[in-house]
Design a protein that fits this description.
alpha/beta; Rossmann fold; globular; oxidoreductase activity; Fungal_SecMetab_SDRs; NAD(P)-bd_dom_sf; Short chain dehydrogenase
């Protein structure tokens, strides 16, 4: 495959906001080759079939909660592409994804493991391939619900929303991003957290008051296509900067 292509890997990309990011990147950006991370290739193929034909998109089997699955994805990526230009940590869960009957400790553990720890493990595994890019970008799909400042602000639209496990996992993701932004700033990495906004996905039970998932792709794609003078270490949504 031509070396001038920009290779993008998006986790949890066969549905919801992840699928919208895939679609927007692949349709609007010439030379972008998008790898759709998904737990099963069958689900990935079905998702690709829902997109416009002949887009530069292919599925990659990837379970971010499984180290063996991550290692296999890295090995396949190394063999086929030799580098990664953009990593979008999109896969995540909320309490709605959990089975009934879990203890509070189990709820925190599963949500934190998927949303924060697994995103860190996936990023760390792909850092060597990102180092081979002339313009490496890492995006963590967070939430304004992970903002400590907003959580304490009575004027925040979601003030008092009782979702502590999810909020804590996204606050942790924000800190993981900040660590990577500092660690790799001198190497030219652009590392940011992106809030997609309140959009109807399985995370919120496809809430009828929420927007269309395509809205959640706007800022992520802006960060994924930023030039070498683009920002790093920021917390933004499509409207602008968010409080930590």
């Amino acid at each position: 495959m031509a070396s001038q292509n920009t290779f993008v890997l998006i986790s949890g990309a066969n549905q919801g906001i992840g699928l919208e990011i895939v679609k927007k990147l692949a349709t609007e950006n010439a030379g972008y080759h998008v790898l759709m991370g998904c737990r099963s290739l069958e689900k990935g193929q079905a998702a690709i079939a829902s997109l416009p034909p002949n887009l530069p998109v292919e599925p990659v089997e990837l379970d971010i909660t499984n180290d063996s699955s991550i290692s296999k994805a890295v090995a396949k990526f190394q063999e086929k592409y030799g580098r990664l230009d953009v990593l979008v940590n999109n896969a995540g869960i909320s309490s709605l994804s959990l089975p009934e009957g879990l203890s509070l400790r189990q709820q925190y553990s599963q949500i934190m493991d998927t949303n924060a720890i697994s995103a860190a493990c996936l990023t760390e595994a792909f850092v060597p391939l990102l180092h081979k890019s002339s313009h490496p970008r890492i995006i963590f799909m967070t939430s304004e619900l992970g903002s400590i400042g907003a959580t304490l602000d009575p004027k925040f639209p979601y003030y008092g929303l009782d979702a502590p496990q999810y909020k804590a996992s996204k606050a942790a993701m924000n800190m993981i991003m900040a660590t990577y932004a500092v660690r790799y700033k001198d190497a030219g990495f652009q590392v940011n957290v992106c809030c997609p906004g309140f959009n109807a996905t399985n995370l919120n039970g496809f809430n009828t008051r929420a927007g269309h998932p395509s809205n959640g792709a706007i800022n992520a794609c802006r960060l994924a296509t930023a030039g070498k003078d683009g920002e790093t270490g920021t917390f933004t949504n499509k409207e602008g900067t968010l409080p930590w």
